[in-house]
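thought: fold this chain, then report.
action: predict
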Amino acid sequence: MTEATPPIRILLVDDQPLFRHAVATLLDEQPDFTVVGQAGHGVEGIELAQTQHPDVVLLDMEMPGLDGLATAARLREVAPAARIVILTVADDDGHLLEAIRLGVQGYLLKDLHPDELYAMLRAVMRDETPVSPALVGRLMAALRDTGRPTVTPATDEATLSSRELEVLRLVADGLSNKEIGTTLSITEGTVKNHVHNALAKLGLENRIQAAAYIVRRGLGRPRT
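observation:
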């Protein structure tokens, strides 16, 4: 008999109690999620992350005291194993770009459907980096237009294999590992390995940073 996979441990950090409790109720109804803590502000969230060891921190952007960005930066230090996903009503491009620089693993808007939230949290645990569909086009445009560096790779694309570069181009197009595998006729696990190796070579932390790198270097696939 195979051992059951433990549920994904989620910490909620949001200053709106009604919304926070509603999300917790929804997540706890899913057999593969468990909410291990709820915090009403960033400082409390940081403290709970250190004691509860969540797999995912679902973090609001607009909070009194420490905002989402400041909280995310601190979480990266005290709970480096936790994946940080921003869940917010704020669709500010500056916040999105700064979150990418900090290495968050996802950036979602609060108007998404519960099933979309579940799918995106599961994708985070597969080392994907979900962004609300409404933000993807704006993200790519912002990365092309702004002159401020978003990420600073440790090296350049010359270290990448042709397949790794091909995979990163599809990542920049917003494709999931499964979709990339279908496109290239390779397994999803092989795609994951290529992404992992490419990120390690470039000194980047996640898929959003990889997409930013591809866009900034002008390495994306030609648009038809």
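thought: worth noting. The beta strands are 8-13, 33-39, 56-59, 83-88, 106-109.
final: tokens above.
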